[in-house]
Amino acid sequence: MDSRLPPDLRDGVRDTLPLLLGIVPFALVAGVAGVEAGLTPLQTVGLSVVVFAGASQLAAIDLLGRDAALVTVVLTVVVINLRMVMYSASIAPYFRRLSARVRAGCAYVLTDQAYALALARYTSDRDRDSDTRRPYYYLGVALTLWIVWQAGTVVGVVFGAAVPDDWRLGFAVPLVFLALLVPAVSDAPSLAAAVVAAVVATVGAGLPFNAGLIAGALVGVVAGVGADRVGVGRDGGDGGGGGDPDPAEGHR
Fold it and tell me: Exposure of 135 by Cβ count < 10 A (0-12 exposed, 13-18 middle, 19+ buried)?
């Protein structure tokens, strides 16, 4: 890697490399799914650049392919990405010395992985004078993910456009969502959220504007929070499972 690059930037790129094993197939599916849903290659790539969000991007593609109302598509993307608000609030103190324009750029490339890696780095950094270096590590992670995601999406678009019409690739999106869901169901509250959301979304499948999907997501969140507050699946009465959560979990 070019030694002229800031060390923190190089560290960010290096720490991101193992994650690309999961990012590349996901990006390929996003490109294929866009073509399969009837979007043009330009529309698919444009959506990827504007939205830049794995799960919500696939959800938007799926809804657009089923001619869902635009308001439903937007609301679905917003609901899925609400966690980014919490991420932003959590990591914002480490970027307080940056200009508003730079912070806006950092917000655009915020992902689960960029947040987790950067937060782990910053909380373990004992150098209080490192504020001016911090953006380099974050950008090393975030920009690497952005470039690989967009490149993977383009390759997926090219591949999807070359696939004969009689090859049905619609199964790819549900499989990806299933692969994301299973590891996320790690305790009783998350299981409650997943089950309730699935039931509500299935029952509401016939609602206008695909509103069942949004209803399922919202009710699932409420169910998960409720289960967590009443202590479902917890041992003892200390209200916690002990230990800190793994900062490397999650995907945008």
Answer: buried
The residue type found at 197 is: A
**CB-based contact 88:203 (threshold 8 Å):** no
Q: Which of 51-55, 92-96, 171-175 has the lowest mean pLDDT?
A: 171-175
Domain boundary among 142, 170, 198: 170
pLDDT, tens digit, 9 for 90 and up, residues 161-208:
665 555 554 555 555 555 556 555 677 877 888 788 778 877 876 666
Q: Quick check: 144 and 12 in contact, CB under 8 A? A: yes
Residue 133 vs residue 95, higher pLDDT: 95
Closest to 145 (Cα-Cα) out of 60, 53, 43: 53
Q: Are residues 98 and 165 in the same domain?
A: yes
227 within 8 A of 192, measured Cβ to Cβ:
yes
Cα end-to-end distance, the chain, whole Å: 27
Up-side HSE of residue 252: CA atoms within 13 Å toward CB? 28
How much is the pTM? 0.68
